[in-house]
Amino acid sequence: MPVVVHAVDQAEFDAWLEGKREKARAVAEAVKQTLTFQQLYEQGEAVYNKNCASCHQADGKGVAGVFPAIAGSKIATGPVAEHINRVVNGGVGMPPFGEQLTPVEIAAVVTFQRNAYGNNMGDQIQPIDVVNFKQGQ
Ligand code: HEC
């Protein structure tokens, strides 16, 4: 396989680095926040509709034999770590979201799934929980 080297000049490199720093700062700021249940749930619903409903469906019932339901799901009503793990790392036929979504978005969508569609876990996941999970794995 040929190795393609993409040469960048200093200005391009600086801009790239600044972009990375900007993103890291934004994530670091967001992670310090403690959100209310309401904020997590509402943001989580939006994240779900945009990223998850195409497979798990808007009513959370999934598609029998293809995409599991979130309503009554063992993972969405089980230990939090397994739920975060599924979203961060994906599964068979499910893409990983650990890089695609921010810790705030992951915390929000996990909180939403644990408390929507008749799932009544009554718990809430904060962005820092997602960061700790990712660092611990
Ligand atoms: C491309 C389709 C697809 C998308 C998009 C998708 N999932 Fe999944 N999801 C799956 C499949 C398939 C499984 C079963 C994976 C397995 O068992 O290994 C699954 C399993 C799950 C489970 C466990 C359900 C159970 O009890 O077995 C949860 C929770 C979950 N997904 C959350 C999410 C969240 C949150 C999003 C959006 C951020 C999402 N999924 C987006 C296809 C998808």
Walk me through this protein's architecture.
The structure is a single chain. With 137 residues, the protein is mostly helical. It has a single domain (35-136), classed as Cytochrome Bc1 Complex, Chain D, domain 2 (Orthogonal Bundle). It is 55% helix and 0% strand. The chain contains 6 helices and no strands. It has helices at residues 10-32, 37-51, 53-56, 80-89, 103-115, 127-136. Helix 2 packs across helix 5 (103-115) and helix 5 (103-115) crosses helix 6. It is globular. The two termini are 32 Å apart. It binds heme C. Heme C is lined by residues 51-52, 54-56, 67-68, 73-76, 83, 86-87, 91-95, 97, 109, 113. Residues 51-52, 54-56, 67-68, 73-76, 83, 86-87, 91-95, 97, 109, 113 line the site of heme C.
* Portion in strands: under 5%
- Look up the CATH topology: Cytochrome Bc1 Complex, Chain D, domain 2
Distance between the termini: 32 Å
Helical/strand content category: mainly alpha
Q: Runs with pLDDT <50, length 5+?
A: none
Q: Give the cofactors and ligands.
A: heme C
Helix and strand pattern? HHHHHH
What is the 3D shape?
globular
Helix count equals 6
Major beta sheet, specifics? none
Give the overall pLDDT as a whole number: 95
Considering the protein shown, what is the CATH homologous superfamily?
Answer: Cytochrome c-like domain
The total strand number stands at 0
Total tally of structural domains? 1
Helix content range: 40-55%
Estimated radius of gyration: 18 Å
- What would you say the CATH architecture is? Orthogonal Bundle
